[in-house]
């Protein structure tokens, strides 16, 4: 349902144009133009079953755009059970569900992936790494 805009480029572009003649192909976009495209969308459809992280998911969510995707590694790792996406083997059903999700919640969720949040998580993990050897060393010198 609705109109479809595809952003990007690649070796399968002509195949996709033939397969989806009513879709608008915007080509590659970057920076502010890409952010505006995300923000204008009712939902972001992520059709990949093999992308292992899916940075584009976070980009779409940062624009307040809910996500429709397959329930595979990548989307599962990034989104988990957060109510900002619909993960379904049927992408049409996922789209119909995603358009009903909160754009504000999508944006809020994406803030968890900000540079500041990622830095805090990284430093927290470093602190844990330092605590583990210290605890092991302490046990090694305590009498049994």
TrEMBL record:
Domain of life of the native organism: Bacteria
InterPro entries: Glycosyltransferase_grp1
Molecular function per GO: glycosyltransferase activity
PANTHER family: SULFOQUINOVOSYL TRANSFERASE SQD2
Protein name stated in the entry: Glycosyltransferase family 1 protein
Native organism: Aerococcus urinae
């Amino acid at each position: 349902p609705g109109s479809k805009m595809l952003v990007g480029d690649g070796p399968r572009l002509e195949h996709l144009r033939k397969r989806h003649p009513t879709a608008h192909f915007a080509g590659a976009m970057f920076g502010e133009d890409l952010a505006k495209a995300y923000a204008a969308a009712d939902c972001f459809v992520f059709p990949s079953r093999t992308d292992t992280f899916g940075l584009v998911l976070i980009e779409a969510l940062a624009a307040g755009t809910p996500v429709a995707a397959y329930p595979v590694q990548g989307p599962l790792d990034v989104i988990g059970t957060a109510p900002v996406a619909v993960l379904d083997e049927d992408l049409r059903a996922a789209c119909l569900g995603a358009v009903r999700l909160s754009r504000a919640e999508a944006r809020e969720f994406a803030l968890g992936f900000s540079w500041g949040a990622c830095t805090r998580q990284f430093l927290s993990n470093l602190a844990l790494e330092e605590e583990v050897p210290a605890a092991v060393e302490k046990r090694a010198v305590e009498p049994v």
